[in-house]
Design a protein that fits this description.
- The protein is an alpha+beta fold.
- The chain has 2 domains: 103 residues, Aspartate Aminotransferase, domain 2; 120 residues, Aspartate Aminotransferase, domain 1, CATH 3.90.1150.
- Helix content is 35%, strand content 13%.
- It is built from 7 helices and 9 strands, in the order αβββββαααβββααβα.
- The protein has a 3-stranded mixed sheet with strand order 1-4-5, with helices on one face. The chain has a 3-stranded antiparallel sheet with strand order 3-2-7, with no helix packed on it.
- Helix 4 runs parallel beside helix 7.
- Bound molecules: pyridoxal-5'-phosphate.
- Pyridoxal-5'-phosphate binds next to loops.
Length: 234
């Protein structure tokens, strides 16, 4: 964020933050979604705080931006109920809001559990040189990760994925393995070789609230076996 802010300041640009997966994450003590002019958070069911359908929130810092977002989400209707502009229907319905409200009460413990599971993966896999892991939960005071995903970089990723499947472990490749600039119909022409390379290596290991500690150890041991490493016992 520091680097992005420098670029934005130098060129008079606004930062609009995609914090879809990041509710509760912090950088240098500051929450994701609060860095830019506006930050968007997704409550899609797969998110750490997910509703049973589509939902989201926009976090803003400024009254004028707030008023504009209020209008955009509700057919151009202002806070006082008057239609002032063209808009959309992007309201969060009350049932979804109630579900989110209920889950939000336990959100800190959900984050703590995910951080615990991530720490366990780290303990079990950090000595495998064929992998690059996300930073361990407490490894850097500047970064507080909620571990929406546990995404690793893996050598021979596709073979590892198949091997995990053979051993009963489901994994995901985010975005179907396609980076945004690789989508053919969006007209993006940039060549991004480092991103291309990264997308051949990324793999998401199981990370969810039904995972038991023993299951993380099991998954890790399957990964270790794939690379010819001895299992970890605890
Ligand atoms: C990083 C990121 N941006 C944007 C989105 C889109 O969120 P939504 O489906 O709530 O519009 C998602 C979720 O899929 C996401 O993970």
């Amino acid at each position: 964020m520091d680097s992005l802010q420098k670029i934005a300041d130098a060129h008079g640009l606004m930062i609009l933050e995609d914090a879809a997966q990041a509710l509760g994450s912090k950088f240098k003590g500051r929450s994701a979604s609060t860095f830019g002019v506006a930050g968007a958070i997704s409550f899609y069911p797969a998110k750490v705080l997910g509703c049973f359908g589509d939902g989201g929130a926009v976090i803003v810092q400024d009254d004028a931006v707030y008023e504009r977002i209020v209008q955009l989400r509700d057919h151009g209707r202002s806070s006082s109920g008057e239609i002032l502009s063209w808009g959309l229907n992007s309201r969060l319905d009350n049932l979804q809001a109630a579900l989110l409200d209920l889950q939000f009460r336990d959100y800190d413990s959900v984050i703590a559990r995910r951080r615990h599971l991530a720490g366990l993966y780290h303990e079990c896999l950090s000595d495998v040189p064929e992998l690059a892991l996300p930073p361990a939960p407490a490894s850097d005071p500047d970064h507080f990760d909620i571990f929406q995903n546990y995404e690793i970089e893996a050598t021979r990723r596709d073979e590892l994925k198949a091997y995990l499947k053979e051993h009963g472990v489901g994994t995901l490749i985010q975005w179907g393995g396609v980076a945004i600039h690789q989508l053919k119909h969006l007209g993006i022409t940039q060549d991004l070789p480092r991103t291309d390379e990264l997308f051949t290596r990324l793999l998401m290991l199981p990370m969810n609230m039904s995972l038991q500690d023993e299951e993380v150890v099991y998954v890790s041991n399957v990964v270790r076996a794939f690379y010819g490493r001895a299992p970890r016992n605890s």
